Amino acid sequence: MYKLIDGRAHSSAMREEIKSAALDFKEKFGRNVGLAVVLVGEDPASQVYVRNKIKGCEETGIKSFAYYLPADAEQSQVEELVKQLASSGEVDGILVQLPVPAHIDATAVLSLIPVEKDVDGFCESNMGSLCMNEPCLVACTPNGVMRMLEREGIELKGKRAVVVGRSNIVGKPMAMLLLNADATVTVCHSKTRDLKDICSEADILVAAIGRAKYITADMVKWGAVVVDVGMNRDKNGKLCGDVDFEGVKDKCSYITPVPGGVGPMTITMLLSNTVQAACRRMQK
Ligand code: NAP
After folding, report:
1. β-strand 34-40 against 93-96: which pairing, if any?
2. pLDDT tens digits, one per residue of 22-80
3. Rounded to 5°, angle at Cα 83 from 98 and 59
4. Is the Cβ atom of 31 under 6 angstroms away from ligand 1?
5. Domains annotated on the chain, with CATH
């Protein structure tokens, strides 16, 4: 019988811890932890994400600073704003909601976020530190996966882990985190041969592909822990993951559902990174 990993329950327990850490910070330093969120344009999905991030801040006692720039904002305007936030004493974390409109050079904008305020964990320096297994701000989604595995008491040391997907924001940092936790890690991608055979060897299988129900029961080892990062729509428009949940679940020891698995942890990890960034900055 499989155990469902309840991302909503983990997330809400963690938010209580974050709230209490944010309150301690305020008592100690006389101000709130601050997160700046920058949205360029009116992409509806991005608007929802930004709203949820601001709501998460309100829930945990983090002060949010929201900046909405029009879709035709110039590169210099966006860069100027990020530079101001970079030097602001009240802002501990800066998040530029991606994707930005096509005429904006996202890499140039992100490079202006100082490493200590890079609460998304996307900058080269934080990614490099992750590879070196040094303390850093870690990308929220893979960090959330690790926290759920940890909270479930799932042992990773010596386990065979397979990560399907190698994006800079999910697959690569996920693989590094698992490696740093002493798992033996294989990373797969669209050019991988024998994907089914490789996945079938995984004790821990993480799917971060972006293809609805792509991981089927014949790709899963009996007793595997299956983590589904994917967020897709099936042919009826219903939200679903990269894993064929119904087909796979009975082979698993643990499995995350979609929705209600990895998703709820992502914003929670952003809030956690923001408090962590604030504490580190003040200690300096
Ligand atoms: P991405 O940048 O599009 O990367 C997808 C990865 O999957 C790529 O590395 C790609 O390989 C690989 N891939 C695609 N088709 C494949 C196939 N047939 N076999 C093996 N590998 C294949 O996507 P992402 O940003 O990492 O996101 C992945 C999924 O997670 C999406 O569904 C996204 O919506 C979801 N997501 C969820 C959260 C959350 O909070 N729950 C956060 C972020 C992302 P190549 O590198 O060879 O192209």
Report:
1. parallel
2. 999 999 999 999 999 999 999 999 999 999 999 999 999 999 999 999 999 999 999 99
3. 55
4. no
5. 30-114 (3.40.50.10860), 140-263 (3.40.50.720)
Atom 31 of ligand 1, nearest CA residue = 210
**Atom of ligand 1 minimally distant from the CA of 241:** 32
State which amino acid sits at residue 50. Answer: V
Cα distance between residue 142 and residue 148, in whole Å = 10
* Cβ–ligand 1 contact at 195 (below 6 Å): yes
b/e code 263-279 from CB counts within 10 Å (16+ = b): bbbbbbbbbbbbbbbbb
- In sequence order, the 6+-apart residues with CB closer than 8 A to the CB of 248 are 215, 216, 217, 220, 226, 255
Q: Is the CB of 204 under 6 A from ligand 1?
A: no
Point out the residues that are catalytic: 53, 97, 120
- Give CA–CA dist 146/7, Å, rounded: 12
User: 19 CB less than 6 Å from ligand 1?
Assistant: no
Query: What is the distance in A from the centroid of ligand 1 to the CA of 169?
Result: 9
